[in-house]
Amino acid sequence: MNVSDIGEFGLIERLANAVGASQPADLIVSIGDDAAAWRVDDAVELATTDTLVEGVHFLPGRTPWADLGWKALAVNVSDIAAMGGLPQYALVTLALPPETPVQAVDELYEGLGECGREYGVAVAGGDVVRAPLVVISVALLGRAEADARGRPRLMRRDAARAGYAVALTGTLGGSAAGLRRLKEGAPPDDPLARAHLRPRPPLAAARRAAELGVPCAIDISDGLLQDLGHVCGMSGLGAVLRAAALPVRLELRDAYPDDALALACTGGEDYELLFVAPRQTLEALGPEITVIGEMVEDAERRARLVDGSGEEIRLPAAGWDHLRP
Predict the structure, then answer these.
(1) What tens digit of pLDDT does each residue of 38-49 get?
(2) Which residues does the chain have with pLDDT short of 50?
(3) How many whole angstroms separate alpha carbon 313 and alpha carbon 295?
């Protein structure tokens, strides 16, 4: 059996089972959520990590180095945001071919620094190694703030309940469409290409959601249906999403009208946030979020997309899996 036979998420489950027996009592959130969380005295620390690989996560020759630096940090900020936390310190590992131009690395760190200033993150260290292709790995540390009773404001994937509404920040499909545009030869300043190259995680909205008591969230990294499916699996529920309610990016509808719905639901890398909470709690977040469905009892624990008559819309795939063909 190869890892492609079980896929990325099957492998993650297998690894979680391998390390699960030795988890210390201070570890609040372990493998399976957007970030790990553990207690240190009266505080709760957060940590996440993500890796960008040349030819897998970015197009060599078509991705400006500064944009690559921005994105390498932003995708980690998104994970801390999805937990309701505050990002603070980053460790950056660069794996580089020896012939990599020094100016390219300077530009990469220029973009990384821009993102750090935008979100209040300091680069505290890292590592540099030789490799046959460019790989950038970022580990990001943060913290969760406490409520008036001293309880950490953590939004978790396993905290959804039947009847809770599902809401989304921003719009969907811009990144997937931007990747397609880049492959077609569009310049990096194309509006859709910018959505792919420079995601902007809604950290401020995430922190307001945590303050209001939103219990459950996840970021849109692998695709709307797949990521909501993780919430379904960990919460033991299903979800019903209304296709007509989805905030599909307008430029996507114009550029690829026939594929707009599929790209919005399965394309991934939008780095918007899904919030799951009682409707009245979500309404307090204001017009920057869109309610797109609700959590339901479902033995299959699936996220379903339905049309106006309630019929399920089947798409070829739910989202991105690193290990499947």
Answers:
(1) 988 878 999 999
(2) none
(3) 17
Which domains does the chain carry?
26-144 (3.30.1330.10), 165-306 (3.90.650.10)
What pLDDT is attached to residue 7? Answer: 83
Cα(229)–Cα(239) distance, rounded to whole angstroms? Answer: 8
Q: Are 81 and 221 in contact (CB under 8 A)?
A: no
Starting at the earlier edge strand, list the strands of the sheet with 36-40. Answer: 27-29, 36-40, 43-53, 135-144, 86-96, 122-130
Those residues with Cβ within 8 angstroms of residue 54's Cβ, 6 or more apart along the chain or in another chain: 60, 133, 134, 135
**Are the beta carbons of 82 and 155 closer than 8 angstroms?**
yes
Q: Are strands 238-242 and 303-306 parallel, antiparallel or unpaired?
A: parallel
Q: What are the pLDDT digits (tens) for 75-90?
A: 999 999 999 999 999 9
The Cα 275–Cα 282 span in angstroms is 8
Encoded tokens for 98: 């020896």
Three-class HEC string of the chain: CCHHHHHHHHHHHHHHHHHHHHCCCCEEECECECCEEEEECCEEEEEEEEEEEECCCECCCCCCHHHHHHHHHHHHHHHHHHCCCEEEEEEEEEEECCCCCHHHHHHHHHHHHHHHHHHCCEEEEEEEEECCCCEEEEEEEEEECECCCCCECCCCCCCCCCCCEEEEECCECHHHHHHHHHHCCCCCCCHHHHHHHCCCCCHHHHHHHHHHCCCEEEECCCCHHHHHHHHHHHHCCEEEEEHHHCCECHHHHHHCCCCHHHHHHHCCCCCCEEEEECHHHHHCCCCCEEEEEEEECCCCCCEEEECCCCCECCCCCCCCCCCCC
- Cβ of 205: how many Cβ atoms within 10 Å? 19
CA 291/CA 283 separation, integer angstroms: 9
- β-bridge mates for residue 174, sequence order: none
